[in-house]
Amino acid sequence: MNFVLDMEQSIAAAKFDKEHWHLDKEHGAISGGLTYSFTNTSLGQVAKVHCSICDTELDLTDYYSW
Predict the structure, then answer these.
(1) What is the CA radius of gyration of the chain?
(2) Cβ distance 49 to 35 under 8 Å?
(3) Number of separate domains in the chain
(4) Which of 17, 31, 32, 49 has the most crowded CB, counting CB atoms within 10 A?
(5) How many Å is the maximal CA-CA distance in the chain?
């Protein structure tokens, strides 16, 4: 199964990634500070990105397209 972000979601995710690059914190062995999650619902797909270092989450879902 493939999960794809559209252009607006990709831009928002890249901005979130840049804002949450914590230089003073450990990012793990593979710099895995961000987790992307995709949840399929009966209406559409929910896409979120979560920063495990500062415990902040951004909902990337385009609810208007549902």
Answers:
(1) 13
(2) yes
(3) 1
(4) 49
(5) 41
Each of the 66 residues of the chain gets a pLDDT tens digit; together they read 789 899 999 999 999 988 887 766 665 656 667 899 999 999 999 999 999 888 999 999 999 988
Q: What is this structure's pTM?
A: 0.81
Query: Looking at the domain assignment, is residue 2 inside a domain?
Result: no
Residue 60 lies in a domain: yes
Distance, in Å, from the CA atom of 23 to the CA atom of 27, rounded to the nearest integer, reads 9
Of 25, 26, 46, which is closest to residue 36 (Cα–Cα)? Answer: 46
Is residue 50 a part of any domain in this protein?
A: yes
| Contact indicator for 48, 57 with CB cutoff of 8 Å | yes
27 lies in a domain?
no
Distances (CA, A) of 8 to 27, 55, 61, 66: 26, 23, 10, 16
